[in-house]
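Researcher: Here's the sequence for the chain we discussed earlier.
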Amino acid sequence: MDVLRAVIARLSVDIHHVIEAAGIVALGLVFYSYARRWFDSNRQIDARLRALAVGLVFGVLTIALMISRIEVGQGTFVDARALPIALITLVEGGGAGLVAALVAAAYRASLGGTGALAGVAGLLATAGAATLALAWARRSGGVRSRHGFVLGIAVYLITLGTFLMLGARGFELFKRDWLPLLIVSVIGVGGFTRLFVDVVNAQAAEAARRDAAELRAVTLLARAAAHEINNALMVVAGGLAILARRLPAGSEDAQWAERARDGVNKVKDIVLRMNMITQIEEVPGRGLLAPMLDIRRSSGSE
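Model: Thanks. This is the structure I predict for it:
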């Protein structure tokens, strides 16, 4: 009971500051939800540009959290600067995480002070730890809550390391603030990881449904067109066969009829591929020519 009371006493947190910090992270979640949907619908955009754009925004969010500190005692503050970097790296990749860390590190370096080097090192180390956590998650089938909580522990240890870089004074500060830092790191990263992963999974499911609907529409249209083309093609093929029997062998008219039969056979191949479409592959547009379905690649003929 004495231990519980001591813990509660240590958590004299200003709830308004907590709500403000959580709101900043939630704002990042909303932004990422819309940004991911937009980038996924514009897949021609270079992945590096996507990482840069998302990383810049989350770098700004990291700075906002560094400014919007949480009061955990009389005149004692901590911040949740590691959350945006850790979260965006887990769901978007190391490139976006590195950009976010560099933006925040530049801001921290510009502030100067004895803790500048430790602060910069902590931000960059967080991006590195999150990249390793993402690699682990990919090997185990995707990001889950457990990856977020383990990353939160890693972030907490990184935070300890940055305090130790300040020597005895840093260690004394850490002894004073270890509990709120633990909660911000482990509960913050682990809890918000679930929310970010839910956004990713929901949009992946939505994209899969959209792709399935698009494929179904294309295959229905292609099969209907193939059926109509094949009906007319049978009449043309039959007429050419009759004509070929009546034309003198080796004559110019017979040669033209043979070329026409070759054309009919090529159209038959196209009709066959139209009935075998299993995926959507496009031929890029050129000039005034709009993008169109690549029947060969869509039917697995190549």
